[in-house]
Amino acid sequence: MLAKSQSRTIFGVTSREIDVEIDITSGIRSFVIVGLPDTACRESAKRVMAALKNSGFKLPSLRITVNLAPAHLRKEGAMHDLAIAVTILAAMDIIDKGCLENKIFCGELSLDGSLRPVKGILCVADELQKDKSKELLIPFHNRSEASAVAGLRFVAASCLLEVIGYLTKGTKPLDNRAYKNKKAHLSIDCHDYSDIKGNYNAKRAIEIAVAGGHNILLIGSPGAGKTMLAQRLPTIMGDLNKEESIETSKIYSISGLLSDKELITTPPFRALHHSVSDAGMLGGGSHHIRPGEISLAHNGVLFLDELPEFRRNVLEALRQPLEEDLIRISRANASLSYPCRFMLVAAMNPCPCGFLTHPKRVCTCSPGQIQRYLSKISGPLLDRIDMHIEIQPIKYEQMIETTSEKTSIIIKERTKKARSAQKERYKNHNYSLNAKLPHRDLASYCQISEGAAGLLKTAMSELFISARAYDKILRVSRTIADLDNKPLIGAEEVSEAISYRCLDTKAWL
Amino acid sequence: MNRKELGAKAESLACKFLARKGLQVIERNFRCSAGEIDIIAKDKTYIVVVEVRSTSTYSFHNPLDSFTPLKIERLKVLAQIWLNCHGKDDAFIRFDIITVVFHAKNHNKISYFKDAF
Questions:
Q1: Phi, then psi, of A28 in degrees rounded to 5
Q2: Smallest Cα distance from A55 to chain B, Å
Q3: CB A148 within 8 Å of CB A253
Q4: Which residues are bridge partners to A219 per DSSP?
Q5: Do B89 and A27 touch (CB under 8 A)?
Q6: Cβ B91–A26 below 8 Å, yes or no?
Q7: Which residues pair with A390 in a beta bridge?
Q8: What gap in Å lies between CA A286 and CA A22, rounded to an integer?
Q9: A15 vs A126, A253, A488, B55, CA distance in Å?
Q10: How many Cβ atoms from other residues are within 10 Å of residue A59's Cβ?
Q11: Contacts of A209 by beta carbon, 8 Å cutoff, 6+ apart
Q12: In DSSP terms, which residues pair with A104 in a beta bridge?
């Protein structure tokens, strides 16, 4: 007695086809799963048998052999439970073998026969979209992920009996159950930039950074408002477009953070604690490779508060992903890549006590201490940060000021406009933001006025600005010009961009 | 009664019990180098391998407690050997357990665990 069906397993942000072959003979009861299953997958034997029994199927003592092909690919998790259960029934001739054809089964079974949500349905759905002949059967709680993919044929069921009812009689499970998708909650909605008094310079810098996707470093004494400024970043970022939304949601789907929720439409904001490990930051793990925080921040913001407190190896590992927008994870049993196009926002104190740049308070750190503190952040990493700004503590007069500040909505409109202008300009390229503008295209897209050229010349010779920093100044000034809708970069924009390079111009570093 | 006699008595009781249940005892005390099967019976299409456990007093000891996973595995091997010997390799097979607790004055308590593992 032999039966076959199909399932999928997740590999990176893609999925691979898995053939589930089951052979049943009578004899002493045994249930063997072969084909490189992990522990969760091997345990599906117990779940499937209990689910079948509790769904009302009486099975005699049988020798069941399950083969998950191809054998070389490691099968993770409980995704194949549903496929195994229906294939056993087909092999027992309880249901017709023909009804398993052109169907793909993904789902975890509970002992009572109900279906539990699984990770990565969005990746499976996105790939099956091209193949119109296949129909996907998934747990009900993964319904929103599958319905986000246009043109996909799928059936969402809440228990094994519903799946069998659909396979044998063609009765679709009812879809109009009282069930509401929860909204994926990623950003803190209650914050607004109008909460922040003073700090005009910093707010302007953040607006520019968001508009052009520039990485930014905020330096200031404790309590100056670095964290407050960064926390409000999501409020001024425009929503993701359909393509970006699917890309980001895929990462959340395979991390199991999306089940039961709608797709992610707002840019993710990942604020990390400095105890993060390199595997947690970049992704990895010895058996189960998972996306790290940089991938979870894909199309959004990665916020590193207290930058020098992070482990050095974690920070240094960020260099390559920052350049490539992609992280390649190679381990003994698999090598895969996750997208990670994120905007890096970092905050730090200028010295261990924090008051080196404070206008009034005296810093108590020795030069050696400051040196050690700052040396935790390497030059190559700083080189990848386009803007560094100093934040000064606000004065009493600013604190009690009652004049209304620019609200996040106003800033959001401006950044959205600037971003769409960039997208239009770079529509023939594979990048869409000024921050990603490669050196070879700088000359054609960053035309500067004569006055600006003169200013840059002086800056390079007087401030010892490096060639790479020169490129960065051009990119930032391009964004500033975009915000004001100017085609040509003037001296004004260039001088503002130079002012956002405080680590190049300040003597204390 | 010593342990051996008690065990034999328990097996006889179990056989009678199975007969009452409508099972047909095929063989008792099948022995080979791997061990012993207490009772082999037939229940319609099934071959039933029966393990009999007994205790003499109604103490805290449950007769099932001494039937460990290792013994289950051993019994499965024995069952396979029996099936091979009788050329019934592809028969439907079931494992039952019967426990007998001996009380004074023949008040014996028999428990039957059908399809135990």
A1: -65, 135
A2: 19
A3: no
A4: A348, A390
A5: yes
A6: yes
A7: A219
A8: 30
A9: 9, 12, 46, 57
A10: 15
A11: A215, A216, A343, A345, A386, A387
A12: A6, A136
Burial A359-372 (b: 16+ CB within 10 A, else e): eeeebebeeeebee
Indicate the residue of B89, B90, B92 with minimum beta-carbon distance to A60. B92
What is d(CA A426, CA A275) in angstroms, rounded to the nearest whole number? 38
Strands (E), A373-497: 387-391
- Contact list in B for residue A25 (CB cut-off 8 A) is 90
Query: Closest approach of chain B CAs to the CA of A29, in angstroms?
Result: 8
> Residue A395 and residue A155: Cα distance in Å, rounded?
61
Tokens representing A260 are 């039961």
Helix (H) or strand (E) holding A172: none
What pLDDT digit, counting tens, does each position of B9-42 carry? Answer: 889 999 999 999 899 998 899 988 888 998 999 9
Which segments of A427-490 does DSSP mark as H helices, in order?
Answer: 439-445, 450-462, 467-483
Strand partners, A108: A116
Task: Please give the Cα distance from A151 to A149 (Å, whole number).
Answer: 7
And the tokens for A283?
């992704």
Contact criterion met (CB < 8 Å) for B90 and A29: no
Please state, in angstroms and rounded to a whole number, the distance separating the CA atoms of residues A1 and A26. 10
Q: Is there a contact between B79 and A60 if contact means CB atoms under 8 Å apart? A: no
Which chain A positions have a beta carbon within 8 Å of B91's beta carbon? 26-27
Q: Which residue is closest to A28 within chain B, CA to CA?
A: B93
Of B80, B89, B93, the CB nearest to A61: B93
CA distance A424 to A432: 8
Q: Rounded CA gap, A121 and A105, in Å?
A: 11
Chain B residues in contact with A46 by the CB 8 A cut-off are: none
User: Model pTM?
Assistant: 0.84
- Interface residues of chain A, partner chain B, Cβ below 8 Å: 25-29, 60-61
Q: How far is CA A177 from CA A173, A181, A188, in A?
A: 10, 12, 30
Q: What is the pLDDT along chain B (117 residues), one digit of tens a residue?
A: 677 888 888 899 999 999 998 999 988 999 888 889 989 999 888 899 999 988 876 566 777 888 888 999 999 999 999 998 888 877 888 899 998 888 777 778 888 888 888
Determine contact, residues A321/A327, Cβ cutoff 8 Å: yes
Question: Across the A/B interface, how many CB contacts are shorter than 8 Å?
Answer: 27
Nearest CA-CA distance, residue B93 and chain A, Å: 6
Place of tokens 């000359």: A443
The token pair that represents A313 in the structure block = 């190896």
Contacts of B47 in chain A (CB under 8 A): none
3-state secondary structure of A354: coil
Q: Distance between CA atoms of A425 and B26, rounded to whole angstroms?
A: 88
Query: In Å, how far is B44's CA from the nearest CA of chain A?
Result: 13
pLDDT block averages, 10 residues each, chain A of length 509:
92 91 88 91 93 90 90 89 95 92 94 93 90 90 87 90 91 62 53 81 91 92 86 87 91 84 86 92 85 93 92 91 90 86 92 86 89 86 88 81 78 90 89 88 87 88 81 92 90 90 68
Distance between B76 CA and the closest CA of chain A, angstroms: 7
Q: How far is Cα B100 from Cα A354, in angstroms, rounded to an integer?
A: 80
In terms of DSSP bridges, do strands B35-43 and B24-32 run parallel, antiparallel, or are they unpaired?
Answer: antiparallel
Instruction: Tell me the ipTM for this assembly.
Output: 0.73
